[in-house]
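dude i think i finally got it to work??
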Amino acid sequence: MTLPADLEARTPVEADVPGIAALVGACDETYRAWAPPGWEPPPPGRELDRWRGRITDGSWWTRVAVEPDERVVGLVCFTQAVVQRTLPGRAGVVGVEPIPGRAHVSAVFTHPDRWREGIAAAMLALAEAEMRAQGYRDVQLWTPRDAPARHLYEAAGWRHDGREQWLADLGLPIVAYVKPL
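look at this
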C-alpha cells in the first residue's frame, strides 16, 4: 500500500509537535460517534509534551504523513514491546521487561478529513517494514474496544488476542491486537 501522491512520509521534527497534537485531538473528537454517552475526549494540548518526548528521546520510531503545506495528516509510532511487572499487594508498576522479538505500535492516526484514502494502511506498512528490518518477529497494538479502526486492523491481518483493559487516560476500554511479521 502506498500513500496518496500528495503526501510525504517523513521523520517528524519538533516543529511538527503542534500538528501531531492537533491530529490526535481531531481523531479523539470522532470517538464521540461511538463512545458511551457522556464520554469526553482528553483535553486539547495534552499530547504536546508526550509527542515532543517521543520524537526527541530516540526510543520511538515515528513517521508522519504531511501535505505539501506541512499539515500533519497521518502518524504511526512504534517501540519495543514491554511487559509491566507488579508485586502482589503493592500498588503500581515496579518494573518493565522487554518482550523479546515484539514491537509495540503506540499510535496510528489519520486526520478524519483524509479517512478512506489508505493513509493508515500505508503508514502501518511502512512501520512493519522497519520492524522487520530491526529484527522484530511480531507486533502488538491496543485500540479502543468499540473503535471502527478495528476493521482496518483485521483487514490488514491483525487479530484480537483476547486481552482487554481500561485506559484511564482515555476513559475507555481497550483491546490488544497482534500480528506476525
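The two ends are 16 Å apart (CA to CA).
im so relieved honestly
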